[in-house]
Amino acid sequence: MNNKIKTDLAAYNNAWYRPGNPIKRACWYFVNTVFFRTSFFPFSGFKVFLLKLFGAKAGQNILIKPAVNIKYPWFLKLGNNVWIGEEVWIDNLGMVSIGDNVCLSQGSMILSGNHDYTKPGFNLIIKEIMLEDGVWIGAKAIVCNGVVCKSHSVLLVGSVAVRCLEAYGIYQGNPAVKVKDRNK
Questions:
Q1: Are 68 and 31 in contact (CB under 8 A)?
Q2: What was the pLDDT predicted at 5?
Q3: Which residues contact 49 (CB under 8 A, 6 or more apart)?
Q4: What pLDDT shows up at residue 1?
Q5: CA angle 40-44-45, nearest 5°?
Q6: H-type helices in 20-149, by residue range?
Q7: Are 80 and 60 in contact (CB under 8 A)?
Q8: How far apart are CA 172 and CA 157, in angstroms?
Q9: What is the Rg, in whole angstroms, of the alpha carbon atoms belonging to the chain?
Q10: CA-based diameter of the chain, in Å?
Q11: DSSP alpha helices (H): ranges in the chain?
Q12: pTM
């Protein structure tokens, strides 16, 4: 038992991670809380304007529902005709690219960061996430760091994508496995 790795959170050090100017991060935290995470501000157009103001790349016709949480807009790229449902959490410690005609359903989570449990210091791991055109992430589904959801793939309700999803595949479960092809 003594030769097993033991977590030592006192050894945690993410000093190498510099997600942006601290003043810019503080300003975004305020804007995110007031305009995005609330249920009292339903205006998508203004939210897209704010995302662009903070460095996001955003296409046309983007719908952002209430109670959405976005970590860092400067690590976010949104295509055209993107729908982001209520209580979606885009925890983009690294780049998250979302293609055209993508739907993130209610309560889904896009998590570009994780921790290395094999290291005593619980090291931070950041990997890009890409959701290609036509992807649908179901309600309460989770996309983990490093995952690419290929064109028109579907992650069903409550499922967890820990590996890349094939184009036109429908995935379910934890971890998500392909259950059939998307033919229509």
A1: no
A2: 87
A3: none
A4: 57
A5: 130
A6: 22-31, 44-53
A7: yes
A8: 8
A9: 17
A10: 57
A11: 22-31, 44-53
A12: 0.94
Task: Quote the CA–CA distance of 164 and 29 in Å, as a whole number.
Answer: 31
- For each of the domains in the chain, give its residue range(s) and CATH number, in order of start: 44-181 (2.160.10.10)
> Is residue 161 a contact partner of residue 129, using CB atoms and an 8 Å limit?
no
Spatial strand order in the sheet of 109-111: 69-70, 89-91, 109-111, 142-143, 160-161
pLDDT along the chain (184 residues), means of 10: 85 94 97 94 92 98 97 98 98 98 98 95 96 98 98 98 98 98 86
Cross-sheet strand order for the sheet of 96-98: 57-58, 76-78, 96-98, 129-131, 148-149
Kind and range of the H or E run holding 98 = strand 96-98
